[in-house]
Amino acid sequence: MNDRRKRRRRSSNGLVDVLNAFLTLLVIGLVVVGGGFIFVASQYYGDGPLPEERVFRVESGNALSTTASRLEEQGFITNSLIFSQFGSRVEDNTTIRAGDFTIPANASMADILHELTTGTPIRYAVTIPEGWTSWQVVQRVNADERLTGSIDTLPPEGSILPGSYDYIPGDTRQTVIDRMQAAMTAALAEVWEGREADLPLASPAELLILASIVERETGVAEERPQVAAVFVNRLRTGMRLQSDPTIIYGITLGQSTLDRGLRRSEIQERTDYNTYQIDGLPPTPIANPGIEALNAVAHPDSHDYLYFVAKGASPRDGHVFAETYAEHQQNVARYREIEREAAEQAATEAEAARQELEAEEAGEAEGEAQQ
């Protein structure tokens, strides 16, 4: 009997010992896990190693793990595993955005992940002015060293919509050109759909050609509908367009500038682009018109003007319009007088500057001689 009691007592004591040991291990495990969690959390939320503000680039298609490794390699964080594994468990959004991001000094892993998932990348853009030729556009895109690849074929004239196009560093140049062309395709289709019904234009291509001429004829935005109406009136009456920019395009093909006035021989020479010599429109656009020029041709002003000439020496002065050739000749005569006065003023100013420089040099020479 006593032996059985002793055995039960020993068994009870053994069970208590096992329970105590298990509880001890459990407490130790909780302490270790808790301590590990606290350590990992302190690493994730604490100040980072970055001594000063820097830019970090996320390449297109980079996943969280790849980004974490690159951040550690470049000294933005101390542990890529904590960044990717812990971050993916405590953050709602871990979808990394491509682009360049500004990371402030001492940014924590939490701050960096938040910036890369919800922040706004640094904006990079290519801006194309209205009226540039496709050759000029390609020169600008090629000059941007943040873009990659080459443009193998010159885009057709008029196929690019001027404007500002955002990109991510590393994007290909051809991709940017493709976006510009897609924008023009969409814009031209919309403008053509909403055009006035009685225009003497048979297709979107013809609207695009005329818009390119309007774009090159005036840099004054509010004048575009007036200039467009002059050309529309001429097309309706069978008059030739007689646009100087078309002759210039026929000479340069948009791949250089003509830094001089047109010669009589060039005006008299018959080419596909000389609208003094051909009827109707030239075969292609002569530049890439903006949306305002497209809309001006689709919705020209209602007037009877058939002629226009520059109002002053500066393109910003705009033009003066006329219904008859006689009135136009009077306007041309006034413009020639303005040109003459401007040339005389420029010559007077140049002569004054020359005399001032000569006087300064003479004074310096005499001073040195006296020394």
TrEMBL record:
Annotated transmembrane regions: 21-45
Known catalytic reactions: a peptidoglycan chain = a peptidoglycan chain with N-acetyl-1,6-anhydromuramyl-[peptide] at the reducing end + a peptidoglycan chain with N-acetylglucosamine at the non-reducing end
Entries under HAMAP family matching the protein: MltG
Protein name (database record): Endolytic murein transglycosylase
Keywords noted in UniProt: Cell inner membrane, Cell membrane, Cell wall biogenesis/degradation, Lyase, Membrane, Transmembrane, Transmembrane helix
Role this protein plays: Functions as a peptidoglycan terminase that cleaves nascent peptidoglycan strands endolytically to terminate their elongation.
EC number of the protein: 4.2.2.29
Enzyme class at the top of the EC tree: lyase
UniProt entry tagged with the keyword Repressor: no
Residue segments, region Disordered: 340-371
Subcellular localization: Cell inner membrane
Family: Belongs to the transglycosylase MltG family.
Domain of life: Bacteria
A GO term from the CC aspect: plasma membrane
Site description Important for catalytic activity, residues in chain: 217
Membrane topology, from the record: Single-pass membrane protein
Main subcellular location: membrane
UniProt-listed GO biological process terms: cell wall organization; peptidoglycan biosynthetic process
Pfam families documented for this protein: YceG (PF02618)
